Amino acid sequence: MLTLEAVQAEFGDCFVLRHGSAATPRAIVVDGGPKGTYPDHLAPVLNGLAAEGATIDMVVLSHIDNDHVGGLLELFDDLRSRAAGATGGAALPPIKALWHNAFGLSAGGDDLAPRVREALQEAQAVTPERHAIAGQLQGVAEGDALRSAADELHIPVNPGFADGHVLLDGTPPVQVGSLTIDVVGPSRPILATLRQRWQRWLRAHERARVAGVAAVPPDQSVPNLSSIVLLVRTGGHSLLMTGDGRGDQIITGLRERGLLAADGTFHVEVLKVPHHGSARNTTATFYRTVTADKYVISANGRYGNPDLPCLLSIVDAARDAGRRIELVLTNETDASRQLRTRRPQAAWPYTVTLLPVGSNALAIEVGSTG
After folding, report:
1. How much is the pLDDT for 65?
2. Is residue 19 classed as helix, strand or coil in its secondary structure?
3. What b/e sequence results for 89-128 when a residue is b if at least 16 CB atoms lie within 10 Å of its CB, and e otherwise?
4. Which pTM value belongs to this model?
5. Is 118 helix (H, G, I), strand (E, B) or coil?
6. 94-142 pLDDT, tens digit each
7. Is 101 helix (H, G, I), strand (E, B) or coil?
8. Which residues contact 18 (CB under 8 A, 6 or more apart)?
9. Burial 325-350 (b: 16+ CB within 10 A, else e)
10. Do the Cβ atoms of 27 and 19 come closer than 8 Å?
11. Residue bearing the bigger pLDDT, 51 or 107
């Protein structure tokens, strides 16, 4: 059994990977969407898992953006309330571990984290209207809060990983039941680059502070580029969970893992499209290199996601390779409607499956060609 459930997370990401067997069901939760995702959609899915007697092997937070961590904070707050004796609703399945890289790691080092936090606090005070800075600061605080909640609940954080970090480098494939999970990103070189970006921002902030002018906002791609990227395989079936990673770095990670074919390509049955289908994170080259039978996009049009160029690249790459594909979308958007106008399904090799309005999640069978 291997099924990916795309939970309605509006403009964020929230997925439940179900595996195991009918007798011993198991699950992995990857990201929790923004605030409100847990009570509205994720909790009912988890309640159903608990009713089946399932266990959650781990909760994975790919990175600290609030459209990924908000729902997980709500989940862990609910668990803490129940542990303190509050009467909750329907039962929740037990959680064995949390996979989440601390901000110190995504910033490029624990020594840099306090300086970045201080600078973000000051920048927010100087320019409260800068939502980008506020979002960065919120993400840092939310990531810290999630780890603190895990500690309070005695849920191990990154157990079994060297130095307690979920990284590509030096990490052998992880076995979870019948699943083999390869960490494809982030890598230490990527984190070193992120550290340089944070340092540049710190220098700019310090110069602005001395000059008495508004501080510049941090590079918004820093959390995205530190995304945990996971390849999950079992029984010849595969799916790639990409967080908000960048396409070229995902390809580099696959190459470093020795996973690319002789022609330089890589195929999975299910691909979670990076960063909600943003064209800023992937190019046509990515979709010619990393191919899939099913492409899953969690987005509702906010921030322009998914971008029409991204959808066109996916469909065009499939047409050029003579492959028939399925697009699985959590919401209908202007881009998905334009796609069907620009690339009529009667003449192009793709189908579209939408999460029904009002539903909590859509199940995507891994290994089924639909």
Report:
1. 84
2. strand
3. eeebbebbbbbbbbbbbbbbeeebbeebbebbebbbebbe
4. 0.90
5. helix
6. 999 999 987 666 555 566 666 666 766 665 554 444 455 555 556 677 8
7. coil
8. 1, 2, 3, 4, 5, 25, 26, 27, 49, 54
9. bbbbbbbebebbeebbeebeeeebeb
10. yes
11. 51
